[in-house]
## 1
Amino acid sequence: MSGTALDLSWRHGGAPWGRWRGEPGPWPVIGALVVLSLVFQAVNGNFLSADNLVNLTLQSASLGIITLGVVLVLMVGQIDLSVGAVSGLAAAVVAVGFVQQGWPLWVAVLTAVLLGAGIGGVYGLLTTRLGLPSFVVTLAGLLVAVGLQVRVLGSTGSVNLPYESWLVRFAQQTFLHPVASYAVVALVLAAYVGSRLLERRRRVEAELSAASLPTVAGRAAVLAVVLLVPTWYLNTDRGVGAMVALFVGLVVVADLLLRRTAWGRSVRAVGSNVDSARRAGIAVRRVYVTCFMACTALAALGGVLSAGRLAAANQGTGGSDLNLTAIAAAVIGGTSLFGGRGSAWSAVLGVLVIQAISSGLTLLNVDSSVRYVVTGVVLALAVTIDAVSRRRSEAGGGVRR
Amino acid sequence: MSAATDHGAGHGSGPSTTAGTPVLSLRGVSHSFGAVRALVDVDLDVHPREVVAVVGDNGAGKSTLVGIMAGTIVPDAGELVVDGQELGLTSPGLARQLGIATVFQDLALCDDLDVVENLYLGQELRRGGVLDEVAMEREAWRVLSRLGARVDSVRAPVATLSGGQRQTVAIARALLGDPRVLVLDEPTAALGVTQTAEVLTTIERVRDSGHGVVLVSHNMADVQAVADRVVVLRRGRLNGDFDAEQASYEDIIAAITGVSAPRRRRTAGEDA
C-alpha cells in the first residue's frame, strides 16, 4: 500500500496485488488453490459448500498463526523447528494453569504466550551471541519443549478445558456478526482507497510516477471482490470465525510492519545479505532476536487457540507433523527458504493450500498417507519455483560477490 | 622497516597539498588477527578537499584500515580523531553518524532490496512512524542524477542492475547523509574502462564539494588520476607519504614493493 506497490514485486516487499518483474509472485499458489478446489469440487460436490469452507477456515486459523511466525524466521534466513512443540507446551500451560491451578484464563493465556516469546529470546541469544546454527538450537528447543509439555500435563497426560470458558467459545462458536464483517470490509476498503489517494497526491507533488486514478479504482475494485465474495459466502453459513478474523488481522499487522516500518526493512535486509545489513549500521542481533521471539510467541498463541478449538490439551497437541506442516505452508505460500524474500500473506495462501488438500482428501475418504504424499509434492513444487526464480534473478544481475 | 614513517606521515607537515585541521585522523592504530599483525602503529590524516590514496600490495593491511574507518573492525590499539575529538569507533552505525561513509569493495548492497531501499538502509526516512517512501524515492532520484547515474527504475531490486550501476548506488548511499569523509575500497576493481572513468569523475566531484576522500586501491593509474596524496602501506606499516604531483610512479612502486628505488631513495622513505 505504499509507493512500492507501483512497480515492486510482491516477494521484494511490494503489495500482493502489485506488479511482478518476471517473478511468479503469488500466482502459482493461487493457481494451485484454484486447481485443487476445482478437482475436489468435481469429485465431491461438498468441497466448495459454505459449511465445508467455514470448517476449512476454522482449521486454518491456528496453523496459520504458527505459520506466520515461521514466515518471519524464514525471512531473516533462519529456521525454527520447534514451533509445534512450543505450541503444544503453550496449550499445556493454558490448560493446566486454568483448570488445575485455578489461574484466571487471561493470566494463563498471557503466561503461555510470554513463555513462548521467552523461548524465542533464548534461541535468539544462543544464535547471535554464541553463533550456534538455529537449526540445531531449535531442534534442542523442540526436545526441551516436548519434555516440558509432558511434565506440565502430569500423569494424566490430558487436560480438558470447560466448554463455557471464553477461550473455547472464542475458538469454537464465536463468529463475526454479518453486519460486523461487512463493516470491517468497508473499513479496510476505505482505508486502502484513502491511503492510495493520499500516496498518489504526495507522489504527484513530488513529481514521481504515480498510479492513475483508474488504476487505483481498479485495484480497489479487485480488493473489494477479494474481500466481499468470501465474506458473503461464509456468511451464508455460520460466517467468519473470530479466530479466522484474528489470524487475518495478525497477518495484516505483520504485513504492514514488514513493508512500512524500518524494522520490516531490516528484516528483509538481514535475510537478503546479513553482512551488508550489518555494515549498513543495522542492529542485526536485535533483528534476529525479535524474529525468533515473534515466531515462538505466535506459535504459542496458535497452540493456545488450538487447545481452545479442541477444548483440551494433551501430549499430542502440537506433535507429529505440525512443525513440518507449518514450515511447508510458509514455503508453499511463497516465502523463500533462502531468506530476504517473502510476505506475511504467504502464511494465508500456504495454509489454505495445505488445508484444502487435507479437507478435500478427507471428503474423499482417502487415507492420510495420500495426504502426506500430495502435500510433499506441492512443497517440492513450491521450493522448485523459489529456487528457479532466485537463480534467474541472480543470472540477470550484475556483479555478485 | 625501522625508519618506515620518517617521511611526513601525519600532521599535514609533509608534502601534503592541503593544510589546516584534518577531518579525520588515525593515531597509532594497530590491529592483529591472531598472530598476524595486519596494521602496526599507523597514522593517517584526511583533510577536507583532499583525495588520499592508500596503496599497497595484497596483504599490506588496506582492507583492515578500511574496516577500522568503517567501524566494522575495532583496532587493538590507537584512536581515531574526528574534529579534534578522540573516539573509539565501535560500530558501522557510529561511523556513519560521525560522517565517515564507506563504499566497500563488495559494495555491501542487499540484492533483494531495491535501489531506494538500499540507499536508505539503516537510515530510513520516516513520517509518523512509518517509512516515507515518497521522500526517499524523490531524494534517490536527486542524488543519483547528481552523480550522473543512468538508472531506469529506483524500484528495481539491485540484483538486476549492472556492475557500474551497482557501484553508483553504493557511492550514492555513502554520500546520502553528506559525510565528511568518503572511504572507497577498490572502487574500480570490477569496472570497465568507461565506468572507471565515471567513478573517478565522481570522486573528483565529491572532493570538489568539500569532502575528504580516502581511496584505497592498487590500481596506480586510478591513483595518479585523482589522488592529491599517496600513502603507502607495506606489511601493515606506513612506508611513505607522497605528494601525488611530485612523486614518480617508480617511487611509489618502490615503496609498495620494498625494493630500493634506483633514485630518490631517501625521499621515498625507503629503508633499504
## 2
Amino acid sequence: MISFSSVWFRWGKWFIILPLVLIAILGVIFFIYVNLAFPETRCEFVTHLESPDAAADCFECHLKCTPKIAQDWYESKHGVILVKCFVCHGQPDGKGSVPYAVDPDVDGTCRKCHDPSINRMEHLYGLELNCNKCHPFHQNSLHHKAYVKPIAKKKIE
Amino acid sequence: MDVTRREFLKCAAASSALMAIGGPLAFAATEQPVDKWVKGVCRFCGTGCGVMVGVKNKQAVTVKGDPNNHNGGFLCLKGALMTPIIYAKERLTQPLIRKNGELVEASWDEALDLTASKFKDAIKKDGPRSVAYYGSGQALTEETYLASKIFKAGLKSNNVEGNPRLCMASAVGGYVTTYGKDEPCGSFSDIDAATCFFLIGTNTSECHPILFKRIAARKQSDPNVKVIVVDPRKTNTARIADIHVGFVPGTDLAIMNAMAYVIIQEELDDYRFHSRYVSFMDNKKNKLTFEDYKKFLEDYTPEKAEKLSGVPAATIRKIAMIFAESSATMSLWCMGLNQRIRGVWANNLVSNLHLLTGQIGKPGATPFSLTGQPNACGGVRDTGGLSHLLPAGRLIKKKKHRNEVEFLWGMEPDSLNPKPGYHTIALFDALGKGKVKALLILCTNPAQSLPNVNKYREAMARKDNFIAVIECFRDAETLKFADVVFPAAFWCEREGVYGCSERRYALIGKAIDPPGQARPSVNILVDLAKRIGVDPKLVPFKDSSDIWEEWRRVAKSTPYNFWGITRDRLRKESGILWPCPTEDHPGTEIRYVRGKDPNIPKDYPKKYDFYGKPDHRAVIWFRPYKGAAEEPDKEYPFVLTTGRVIDHWHTGTMTMKVPELRRSFPKAYVEINDKDAKKMGIQNGDNVLLTTRRDKMVFQARVSDVCRPGLVFVPWFDVNLMINKLTKDAFDPGSKQPEFKICATKVSKV
C-alpha cells in the first residue's frame, strides 16, 4: 500500500520544480522573441520607482514588455496624435501632475479633452465610472468611423 | 443630524458595497471637483486652443479644453498638463537686483528706480537709439502694444524688437509682398473643407498637435482627402501622409518652382483667376506677364529640380497635379520655410502655387502660415511690436502712417522718430559693440534662443550695459545676464488678450492671484515708463482692458479693423476673428472675397479684391532657387537642423516644470539616419560629437529613419545642451530672420 505522504515525499518536489522550469524556459523564449522581433529598441531595464527621472519614454520599453498594449496605443487615435502614456496614466511613482492609474479617472483626466462627449454620454445613457468599458482607448484606430458617426456630432445643450 | 449606530452601520455597509461594485451611483456621490471654471487660451503654441482653468480654494487645480473655441474642447499633452507650471518652486516672487555679481532680493521701488535711472542716463548720454526693448510673441497683446508705445512715442526710440523676428518675420514678409497685408487670408475652419493638404516645412503633429488632429479627422472622414508632406525628416506628421517627399534641405524653392512649371505645362492653372487678380513681378519689382513667368520657369523643369533636390521628377509631377486638381487645397507651413535666408521667397512661392491655380478664397483653399507662439500674430505683428512697424500694419518709414499714429496717440505732428530701429540680430550686435546701453527684456529667453548664441551671450555679459528682465521663472538662462529682474504674473494670473495663427483674438481670464509680490507686466511697464519720465498722458492705463480700448481705436481705420471685438464680447465668446467692424459682426473667416471680408464693399464689381496692393492684384513673384548660407562641404559634410519635440516648448522654462514632460525628454539628443549611423558605427545611445564652425557639443544618438541621409536633427529645448551655440546667425536680407534650420556640421563618434 503506497500512502499519499510517501508519493508526495518521492515526487512532490517535481510538482513544484517542473512548472518553475517550464515558466523559466517560456520566459527565456519570450525574451529572445521580443529581442528578435524589435531589434531597434534597447531595453534599459530601468525600474520605475528607483530612478524615475531616467525612465524616459514609456513607450520604448513597453513596446518590449507589453508589446500588445504598446502596439495598440501606437495604432490608436491617441497614438497617431501623440497623446502619450503619461497624459492619461500619470507617473508610476505618483509624482506626476495626473494621478497614477491604470484606468484613468473620468473627472480628473478624461474630461480635460472629452468633456462635451462625456456630457453627451451622461445625457443618453447615464454616467459610467470607467470610459474604458465601452471605448477601449488603445484600440480606437484612426481608420474606424467614430468621427463621422452622427452620434459623435450631436450637441447637448 | 442624528444618526443612530444602526443607521450608521447600514450606511457604511451600503457605501462599501457600492465602492466594491463601482458604477454610476458611486460616481455621482463624489463632490464637485472645482469651484469655478475660468475661460482662457493655452500658454503654448500658435494654435491658440481654448482652455478652461478649474479653480478651487483660489488655486488653479486643473484644466480642460474650451468646447466653444476652435479646438472643440481638445487639448494636446502640453496643454493638458499645464497646472504644475503655475506653482513651480522656481517662480519669482520678489524683484531682484545684481549686487557684487549676485542677484539679491530688493523692493519694487529700488528695482524700478534703478532701471529708470539707467534708461534715463543712457538716453541723456547716447541718445534714444541706445535704449531698446526686446519682447515676445508670448506677451499679451496689451503688453506689446504698451511697450511699443512707451519706446516709440515716449522715449523716441524705435528699437522695439521681439522674438517673433526669429519665428514669424519671413511669413510677414511673404504675406506683405504677395498680398500687401499681413496675416493669413483663411482660417482653421478651412481644414474641415479642404480636400488636399500640402504640408511643407512643418511638423504639425508635434508643433501644432490639435491642428494635426483636425487634419487627421478630416482625412478620416473622407478617404479621398490627400495629405502631402514635404519635409526632409519623416516625422510623425508623415504618418497620415499619402505622399511623403523627402528632399535635400534647402532645395524646396526649386521644388515649388518645378511644381508651378508642371501646373502650367499640364494646363492646370486657372487663367480666368490669374488674368484678373494677379500681377507678375521679378525680383527687381518689374511688372511682367504670364508669358515671362513661363519663360522663367523653364529653368525649373522637374528633371532639373530632381538633380538639385533628390526628389524624383515623377514625384514632383504627381504632387503638382494633386495640388492643382484637388477641389480645395490648403497649404500649411511653419519654421521650415520661415527660418531660412530665403524665407520670404519660400513664402512667396507657396502663395504663387495658390494664385496660379486659383486655390484661394474658397472654403478649404488657402495658403496658411502657422505661428510658433501663442501671440506672435495678435500681439506683435498686429500691434507693430517690431523695429520697422507701427500699430495695425503701418510702417515707420511712411510719413502718412507716422502722422496717423501721432494723431491717434495725441502727439505733436512729426514727433515720432522716422528711422527704423535695429532688428534683432543687429540689436544684440549693437549691444556687444556698446551702442545699445540699456535693454528691457519681457517674457523671452534670448540667452538660449538666439542663433550662434555664444556671440550674443558675450554681448549680454558686457559689464557696461544694463539689462532688465521681466520674467516668471528664476531658472531662465537670460537671468544670468540680468542686472534687474522683475517678477511677473503668469498666464492666468492676470487678464489679457492672445491672438493666434488664424487672426483669432481671445481673452485669458484672471483665474488666480499672482504669487508673492509678482505683478502683471502691464503695471510694471506703466510704472517704469512714468519713472523714466514718459509723458503720463501717453500711458493713462490702469490695467490691460484700458489698453485694449485704445488699441481698438488705433486699428479702427485700417484693414485690421476689429472695433466690434469689445472686451465684453471677449469675456462672453471664445475668440473672434478680425476684421470685425461692428459689435454684431460674427468675425471673418475668409479675407479678400466680396461678401465675406467686411473691408470690401458689397457692390464691388469683382469677386476678389486684394486691397493691400495699389492695383488690387496679388503678386506672383519670380523667385529663383538659392541655397543656404552654409551648405555642407567636405569638411562639414552633414546638415544640422533644429526644432521642437512635442513634449517641450521653446527653451523648456515651462515644460521642464511638469514631471511627466521632463521625464519624457530629460535632455536633448541627436537624431541620425540609420544608414549614416551604420557607416560610422554609431548605435542608439552612443555619444556623438557635433562640430560646426561655431562650437562643438556631445549628444546621445537616436538612430532612426526619421532624418534622411546627410541630415541630423537636434531639439533646442535643453538648457544644458544648447544647440543654438552651434547654429548660424545668417539672416534673410528681407525679413532679417535668421537661418536656424540649416548649417553645416561634422559628426563623429566619441
